[in-house]
Specification:
Layout lengths: L9 E2 L15 E5 L5 E6 L3 H20 L2 H17 L1 H12 L3 H20 L4 H5 L1 E2 L6 E9 L2 E5 L7 H12 L3 E5 L6 H11 L8 E4 L3 H9 L6 E3 L8 H9 L4 E3 L10 H5 L2 E9 L4
Parallel strand pairs: 1-3, 6-7, 6-9, 7-8, 9-10
Antiparallel strand pairs: 2-3, 4-5, 5-11
Helix pairs in contact: 1-8, 2-4, 3-4, 4-6, 8-9
Length: 285
């Protein structure tokens, strides 16, 4: 029997629950650490970034309006799908990074555990971050965390999966929607994560994943008036100070590259929440 030819895959973007090619038609090769060809990935353009923000904005309303318990169940379902595709992620990480199977396996396991950890906080975070405030007079004064809105994320560039999960998951806990720019060097796991999201109960548009050059895409997201939060956790290799300046023009909340955490953190959930305070009179009866 003759040897079969390989069928190279072109990984697409994930926008609005669909997998379009970049409107620019651009792609770039993804290679192993030794330079061997693995696949092609789409190189997102400015219009792709705008489309992703529009999709996130449209989907964010229903996601923010879901009950915290429901969001937790939806996110836990994503973890179940990741567990079922565990072998695929291990193979992809090993191929992209040349890591051993045991190292890749450890990263996948930690990514799944991280996703489960954040899913569990969906219906608990308000009790930790909210409070009843002491006031003078016959009133209740209660403060509660609410989602910021659309959060743009520059994912850690050295990580194939764990860094992306560690940035996306906490933003989703309180009802934010996300536009994430994946690792340029290791994008395959990001699109495979998108495939898991597409087959889960996460509404299309709540998470959008762009591949390509973070240095090219980040300025457009930072200055976009409909982006309400900017996570620069993976922007250490680009001019992130300029990104902060651009974000300031639209009063966008920014989490800098120094925010990278080795373990899941409530700080990352709180980073993209707003505090809403409600006054209510006490009954005189």
């Amino acid at each position: 029997m003759s040897k079969r030819l390989t069928v190279p895959k072109t990984y697409k973007l994930y926008i609005g629950g669909k997998f379009p090619r970049s409107e620019s038609g651009r792609i770039y090769p993804v290679t192993t650490a030794k330079g061997a060809f693995l696949a092609n990935a789409s190189r997102a353009s400015r219009k792709d970034a705008r489309d992703a923000v529009s999709a996130a904005q449209a989907a964010g309303r229903s996601w923010a309006g879901a009950t915290p318990y429901n969001r937790g169940q939806v996110l836990y379902r994503v973890a179940e799908i990741l567990e079922g595709r565990r072998a695929q992620f291990i193979d992809e990480i090993s191929a992209q990074t040349q890591a051993s199977a045991s190292v890749a396996s450890a990263e996948v396991d930690e990514a799944i555990d991280t996703w489960v950890w954040y899913a569990g906080w969906c219906d608990k975070f308000a009790q930790v971050a909210g409070n009843a405030n002491p006031v003078a007079g016959p009133f209740f004064n209660i403060s509660l965390p609410e989602p910021t809105g659309v959060v743009a994320i520059i994912a850690p560039q050295e990580s194939a999966l764990l860094g992306l999960v560690s940035a996306i998951a906490p933003a989703l806990v309180t009802g934010n929607s996300v536009v994430a720019v994946a690792s340029q060097q290791h994008p395959l796991s990001a699109i495979s994560l998108s495939e898991a999201l597409a087959t889960s109960d996460v509404p299309g548009g709540v998470v959008n994943v762009l591949t390509g050059s973070p240095a090219e895409i980040a300025p457009w997201l930072a200055s976009h008036p409909d982006v309400h939060g900017l996570d620069l956790v993976g922007a250490g290799e680009i001019d992130w100070v300029e990104l902060q300046i651009a974000a300031a023009e639209t009063l966008t909340r920014v989490l800098g590259p120094e925010s990278a955490a080795a373990a899941p953190s409530l700080h990352r959930i709180a980073a993209f929440t707003e505090t809403k305070t409600v006054w209510h009179t006490k009954s005189l009866l």
